[in-house]
Specification:
Enzyme class: hydrolase
CATH class of the largest domain: Mainly Alpha
EC number: 3.4.21.-
Number of strands: 6
Largest sheet: 2 strands, antiparallel
Keywords: Hydrolase, Membrane, Protease, Transmembrane, Transmembrane helix
Number of domains: 2
Strand content: under 5%
CATH topology of the largest domain: Rhomboid-like fold
Protein name: Rhomboid family intramembrane serine protease
Radius of gyration: 21 Å
Order of helices and strands: EEEEHHHEEHHHHHHH
Distance between the termini: 63 Å
Membrane topology: Multi-pass membrane protein
CATH architecture of the largest domain: Up-down Bundle
CATH superfamily of the largest domain: Rhomboid-like
Structural class: mainly alpha
Oligomer: single chain
Strand order of the largest sheet: 1-2
């Protein structure tokens, strides 16, 4: 076999379709050691004394280049806690808090005049991601977050995972603001959740896992998005597109330029979000 790019680094005569989640070298089935996320090569499992020399700055790294932590779900727990805390605050304060934090482009609220993102209240693009309107709404979203979040956090690392979540949520808000009528309200973590779902598909493809379960789940959720009433499909699609794009840039970044490519990917996503917001604000101005 002449194409070394698809051969196991320990067995050059064997085809390798999987990369080690730590060192990113290709490994054949005989060298694949199952780990919490993906597979590792025998030398990475054995630790620094395994005989292979790693780059000085690599250490134990996730598939996206992040650090491993004792609690791979800490950020997910914090995000979940914030959503629950905001839900409890809404129950305690009332709907007035919802009207001050939910997303809409422009709308007259009682005697306060015009309010909304077009009036400079850009914070609504983010605060609306942590609002929910019913027990079923927050229950389904938080269950999805708890199911999708920890594996992605373990694979991406805390900082990259947090960036993925926030950019996905902002992407959903931005597309909603751009397309939906300015007086229609939108709230919920669904855009961010769809971003995590898209990132899961990207990660599974990167690790050469069976794509059928996640694709079936994605198709099912898209069917619900466009058939159920009172669902902001713009938030779902915006979050899905941004989350998938950010995840692709993170897990496919070359090792030598990984951080630069990942920062560029996140910056490009943020720039696209800002462009949608500015375009819509100009239209409503």
């Amino acid at each position: 076999m002449n194409d070394q790019a698809v051969c196991c680094y320990r067995h050059p005569d064997r085809e390798a379709g999987v990369c080690c989640a730590r060192c990113d070298r290709r490994i054949c089935p005989d060298c694949m050691v199952s780990a919490s996320v993906g597979f590792q090569c025998p030398e990475c499992v054995a630790g620094p004394s395994g005989g292979a020399r790693r780059p000085a700055d690599s250490g134990p790294r996730t598939v996206a280049g992040g650090s491993h932590h004792a609690d791979p779900a800490l950020v997910t727990k914090i995000i979940l806690g914030i959503n629950v805390a905001v839900w409890i605050a809404v129950l305690a304060v009332g709907d007035d808090l919802v009207t001050r934090l939910e997303l809409f482009g422009r709308f007259p609220l009682s005697d306060d005049g015009l309010q909304g993102v077009a009036e400079g209240q850009w914070y609504r693009l983010l605060t609306s991601v942590f609002l929910h309107q019913s027990p079923a709404h927050i229950g389904f979203n938080m269950l999805s977050l708890w199911w999708l979040g920890p594996p992605l956090e373990a694979a991406f690392g805390r900082a990259r995972y947090l960036a993925l979540y926030l950019l996905s949520g902002l992407g959903g808000s931005a597309l909603t603001y751009l397309v939906a009528p300015p007086d229609s309200a939108s709230l919920g973590a669904s855009g961010a959740i769809f971003g995590l779902l898209g990132a899961t598909a990207v990660l599974m493809r990167r690790l050469n896992y069976d794509m059928r379960p996640v694709l079936a789940l994605l198709v099912l959720n898209l069917i619900f998005t466009f058939t159920w009433s009172n669902i902001a499909w713009q938030a779902h699609i915006g979050g899905l597109v941004v989350g998938s794009a950010v995840a692709y840039g993170m897990v496919h970044a070359p090792r030598g330029k990984r951080l630069a490519v990942q920062l560029f990917t996140c910056g490009a996503a943020l720039a696209a979000i800002a462009a949608m917001v500015l375009v819509r604000t100009f239209q409503l101005g």
